[in-house]
Design brief:
Radius of gyration: 31 Å
Distance between the termini: 108 Å
Number of strands: 11
Shape: flat
Mean pLDDT: 77
Number of helices: 21
Number of domains: 3
Strand order of the largest sheet: 3-9-8-5-6
Low-confidence stretches: 1-8, 10-16, 56-66, 68-121, 419-423
Length: about 475
């Protein structure tokens, strides 16, 4: 019989076990400050050992005033309709805190930081039009049909559905009164188009602009503008002025005045009444200049002030080692201590990372986007002795308030382009330079993408024409043929 042999086999494996405390620390680091506050509110409800030291609400800043950089919807105009109606021009580098880049001038050394909230419009378009209809002397049926059309308008104030389709919603296809109802809807639409704001109820942009022009006093300029809108709107958008002059028999000055009149109109008359969802962001840190150095400090209004409930802690101390209820309190006490420690650690980490970013981007805070330097997560990770993944968590949905605006920390990282001196230029800085060059160009001889690349090359920044075109598109700047003026 073969001898039985017993063997002991040892397998050694290495793995990382995340303790509940470490898991909580990582999770809190990923949350935005608003999400953190919601998490803490839930913990306060569930854990009697945890309480707020000084109850109060954090100072809120409107998200519409946050600068996420040119690649995001930059930074929030007074209304979206204003932005679409009239492209911005010129150098709008400044100190404002709005999300569009349309800044108001401000001293970067000013220690005061403004806060504000983006307010949703209180009156909707339908309420505005309904109030006007209620004051008209229209018969009840006509007023009701006009109100029906109001409900069919889109947010821009356009009636996008044909009247024939709207009739289908009111009567059957074989109804004998269908034709009469269609005529009544046409009359109701005419009443609607006489309401404020001008251009409301239009079926297309051409009709919208024409309705607005008809509100102006009769003049040669208005008539020329009406003719352009009726027959040459596409040519005007393409800046094909020669064709317009030839077709309408006008000179440069007459065309310039008519063009100016058309540009003053609003192609989205209902957008000013659109209900805007107000979202908020709480800056985690603020940056101010102190004794010639930009310094980041924690926003104390954003930090929850937590402490252990002394009453329950004393009860636990007196009954230590007692029944099961005290064991439950002991567990909640430990959880409360973990939460307090991890919240504090979260803000300490955010501050360390923020200061490291500020130190490397101090030229940005002094001079703006044109001075933004290339920066990677690895650089900051090596500086603060943390992993790159931690830096990624810290800089996502965490915000910095400065005299230049409110920015997500991730905004300060970006790709770079080589310079002829062997260095690198931030893509953010290059976009800012392109914006400045286009803002200062001669409208009659706008700069092509190739010429912009040449000018950047003369400044030591090696960038291809297609890269310039990509950055120009990200900035919302039209191509050269659409920027040419009379």
């Amino acid at each position: 019989m073969n001898a039985m042999r017993q063997g002991l086999q040892l397998r050694l494996s290495q793995h990382l076990a995340l303790t509940p405390q470490l898991q909580q620390s990582i999770r809190l680091l990923q949350l935005s400050t608003l999400e953190l506050n919601a998490e803490i509110d839930q913990a306060l409800q569930e854990n009697p050992l945890l309480e707020l030291d000084e109850p109060g609400e954090p100072t809120m800043f409107g998200l519409g005033q946050v600068n996420d950089g040119p690649t995001a919807p930059q930074t929030s105009t007074p209304s979206e309709s204003d932005e679409r109606q009239e492209p911005r021009g010129g150098d709008d580098e400044g100190w404002g805190m709005d999300f569009s880049g349309s800044h108001g001038q401000r001293d970067p050394n000013d220690d005061d930081l403004d806060s504000g909230e983006t307010q949703a419009t209180s009156t909707s378009l339908r309420e505005h039009l309904g109030a006007q209809l209620a004051m008209t002397q229209l018969p009840d049926r006509e007023r009701a049909l006009a109100g029906f059309l109001v409900e069919a308008l889109n947010d821009d104030g356009y009636l996008t559905q044909p009247l024939e389709e709207l009739v289908d919603l009111l009567v059957a296809e074989d109804d004998e009164g269908r034709e009469a109802l269609l005529e009544e809807l046409g009359i109701a639409l005419a009443h609607l188009q006489n309401l404020d704001p001008p251009g409301i109820g239009a079926r297309n942009a051409q009709e919208c602009l024409s309705l607005q022009l008809q509100c102006f006093p009769v003049s040669a300029e208005r008539n020329l503008a009406l003719a352009i809108v009726a027959n040459h709107l596409d040519h005007l958008a393409a800046h094909d002025f020669a064709r317009i002059r030839k077709s309408l028999g006008c000179d440069d000055n007459e065309l310039r005045v008519a063009q100016s009149l058309i540009r003053s109109l609003n192609p989205r008359p209902g957008a000013q009444y659109a209900q805007i969802e107000t979202r908020y962001v709480v800056p985690d840190v603020t940056v101010k200049k102190s004794q010639g150095r930009w310094v980041a400090t924690l926003n104390r209004d954003a930090m929850p002030r937590l402490r252990i409930n002394r009453l329950y802690a004393d009860i636990l101390h007196r009954h230590r080692g007692g029944n099961g209820s005290s064991a439950g309190l002991a567990s909640q006490l430990q959880e409360a201590k973990w939460l307090i420690k991890n919240v504090q650690q979260r803000f300490d980490t955010i501050l360390r990372v923020s200061q490291a970013i500020v130190d490397r981007q101090r030229a940005f805070f002094d001079h703006g986007e044109v001075a933004m330097r290339p920066l990677t997560l690895r650089e900051i990770a090596e500086t603060v002795k943390l992993h790159e993944s931690t830096i990624s968590r810290v800089t996502t949905q965490k915000y910095l308030a400065s005299p230049r605006g409110i920015y997500e920390l991730k905004y300060f990282f970006g790709s770079h382009v080589a310079t002829d001196s062997g260095g690198a230029a931030s893509s953010t800085a290059i976009r800012a330079l392109i914006k400045q060059l286009v803002g200062a160009e001669d409208g009659k001889k706008p700069l092509s993408d190739a010429r912009l690349a040449e000018i950047l090359g003369e400044q030591g920044i090696v960038v291809a024409r297609r890269t310039v075109a990509k950055y120009r598109e990200l900035l919302g700047i039209p191509p050269v043929n659409l920027r040419k003026s009379l």
